[in-house]
Amino acid sequence: MFLKRHVRRKDGKEHVYYSLCESIRLSRNRTIQRRVLNLGELNTTQIERWQRSIEVIEQKGETRQYRLFTDREGAAPAEAPDVCEVVLSSLSVRRPREFGACWLGSRLWQELKLDQFFATALGDRRGSVEWAKVIELLAINRLCDPESELGVHQRWYGTTAMDVVLGTEDAVAAKDRLYRALDKAIEHKESLEQHLAGRWQDLFGAKCDLLLYDLTSTYFEGQAGEIPIARRGYSRDHRPDALQIILALVVTEEGFPLSYEVFEGNRADVTTLEEILDSVERKHGALSRVWIFDRGIVSEENLALLRRRGASYLVATPRRMLASFQKELVKEDWSEVKAHPQIQVKLVERDGELYVLSRSLNRAEKERAMRMRALHGLRKDLAKLSKSVRSYAAAGFTVGN
Question: Which of 69, 246, 309, 389 has its CA 20 to 30 A from that of 324?
């Protein structure tokens, strides 16, 4: 390879551009040049850095800077003694390791100032490797190629350059150390959530005045004897036979997770709201927020609780209340949603509450098609039944109750 110099004159001024090229031999008497990379205009320092890009260790242990590229087309090492000749056929790949994604994950970690947070929070914990580095390793793994702690120890760590990225030894991925790291991090859960909320506000202008709250469940295979909150309850995974826990998550309108809690597996959704309100207000202050959640959390007690705390809410009302809006549903004073002409809404104020009725023409067409398909199936079944009755009657059988 070599640096090729291109000269262009414009408006009486000379512009010099460089490109990285390589010579490709097509036959014994024919060689072509292929442009690998356009470098644009380079100053003297940049040219020197591109040319002198390799350091060679000589036999006596001395180091010498060589040029990997020459700016003379076709110049051989004999003609340019300060150019290092690389014989491509002699090169081999040994222990390739992933670097780019790991480096980017570490940069994001530093941008969120989590390295500083954990260094302060866990700085008094003794060990051969900083606990902050172990937690960073686990977090980057979850971002790049999620594995269990055992998978990180046995497989993932050795295929990456995380030792270089973290500037630490291989002890950072010791199995026992990985298993113990999250136990130490969980002690600082509330302060970590407050730290992240502050960084998101600084970096992205994220706000905490509109929050979305929902719950899900996850189950355990086996006895789960060491998990006291594991219970059998309503399973969203359709595994009522397995012990489970309930995960509650609060996110901002931008989708940033603000807080989470873990509840017993048999905890009813409707009973969790007050505890979540207390947790969010304790960590992020008591603001007049707007809460959004689904029917599973709706109850008169919960709505009264939100009103007492000065919070607003947007919730899905129980289906049984739809019958009380029959008159409003049949009227034609609907308004179309801007940019969504297939969706129509209507505002109804009743007993100090504002109800938003909505209907979707696309949804109506879909449900109509579903009913027609069901009716078509029923007609076919009735036709078969009618044919069977006629066959029995023709054979002299009497069909009765």
Answer: 309
| Residues found in the chain | 401
> Whole-model pTM above 0.70?
no
Own/partner contacts of 230-238, CB < 8 Å, gap of 24 or more, are: 230/264, 230/265, 231/264, 231/265, 231/266, 231/267, 232/265, 232/266, 233/264, 233/265, 233/266, 233/267
Q: What is the dihedral of CA 234, 235, 239, 242, to 10 degrees?
A: -70
What is the C-alpha end-to-end distance of the chain, expressed in Å?
94
Q: Where are the alpha helices (DSSP H) in 209-322?
A: 273-284, 300-308
- Please, what sign has the CA dihedral across residues 196, 198, 204, 208? positive
Distance, CA of 40 to CA of 304 (rounded, Å): 66
Phi, psi dihedral angles at 297 (to 5 degrees): -105, -5
Using alpha carbons, list the distances in angstroms from residue 218 to 150, 215, 240. Answer: 21, 10, 11
Q: State how far the Cα of 223 lies from the Cα of 241, in Å rounded to an integer.
A: 11
- What confidence tens digit (pLDDT) does each residue in 41-99 have? 877 777 766 666 556 666 666 766 666 655 555 444 445 666 666 666 777 888 889 99
